[in-house]
User: Fold this.
Amino acid sequence: MTTTSAPREIVVGIDPVRAGRLALSWAADEAHRRRLALRLVVAVPPPHTPQHVDGTSRHQALTRRGQDALRAAADWVLARQPDVPLASDLADGFPAAVLAGLAQRAAMVVLGSRHLSRTEEFLSAGSLVVPVTAQARCPVVVVGDAEHITQDPAYVVVGVDGSESSRAALALAFEEADLRRCALRAVAVWQPPVFTLRGGDTLFHAERRLLSETTAGWAEKYPDVRLTHEVLIGSPVELLAEAAEHALAVVVGRRGRGGYTGMRVGSVVHGLLHRAHCPVITVPAG
Assistant:
C-alpha cells in the first residue's frame, strides 16, 4: 500500500530583473500562516544559440543575476519570517515551464504580476501568469497589488457559481479567512439572459438559492468566520473586482460555467487577473 503526503511547500517565482517584493512578502506570510516551507525559484532560459559566444555569455550573466536575486530574496524572507523553512532553486529552463512543473507537487504557487495587457500576456516570452495558472494542479496566487490590510473589518471575497472549481475555491476561501481571522464575503453574479422562457425573478431567486445551498454547512466547520453572501446583477468580472476593491484577496475557481470549450483559464479568471486590485487566488477543481 502506498500513501502520498500533502504538499509541504509554497513555491514563489522570483523575477531576477525586477526586484518586486509584493509577491515574495505575500508568499512568506502565507507560509508562516500555514506552517509550510517556502521554495524560491529563478528559472534561466537556455541560450538561443548555445554554440555562439554571445548566447553563452548572456546565459552566464543571467545565471549570475539569478543567483544574486535568490540571495536577496532569501535575506528578505529571513528578515520578515525567520521561522519559515527556506529553499532556493536556480533552474535551467523557460520560467513558465519550470514553475508549471513545480506546481504539480506544491501546496501553492505565488507569482508577481507585471500588469501586462491581455495581448502582452499572450505574446510576451516572459509571461508566467496565464500558462502557470492554466496548468497548475494547486492554487495559484497572482500578487499585482497589495492586500488591503487597513480595511476594517478585513475580509476575503470568494466568487461562487456552483461549478466544481467554485466549490474548491469556497473551501480555500474559508481556510484563508480562518487563518487571517477575517470575514468572508461570498458573491454570486447573475447575468440576466437575453432570451428565456422563464421569468427573471424566478431565475434570480434560483441563483440566490444556489448560493445559499453552496455555502450551507461551512459555518459549522469554521464557526469563527463571519460569512455574508449576496447575489449581484451584471458582469462577473466587473462586479467581483468591485467587491474585492478593499479585500485582502479574491478567490475564484479556475473554470466556471461560462468558459469556452477548451479554455483552461475561465474568462472570469482571466478578467480578474487584469482588473482586480488585490491578490487573486485561483483554485482548480478538487
Summary: The longest helix spans residues 53-80. Residues 100 and 237 are 25 Å apart (CA to CA). Confidence is low (pLDDT under 50) at residues 119-126, 256-263. The chain is about 40% helix and 20% strand.
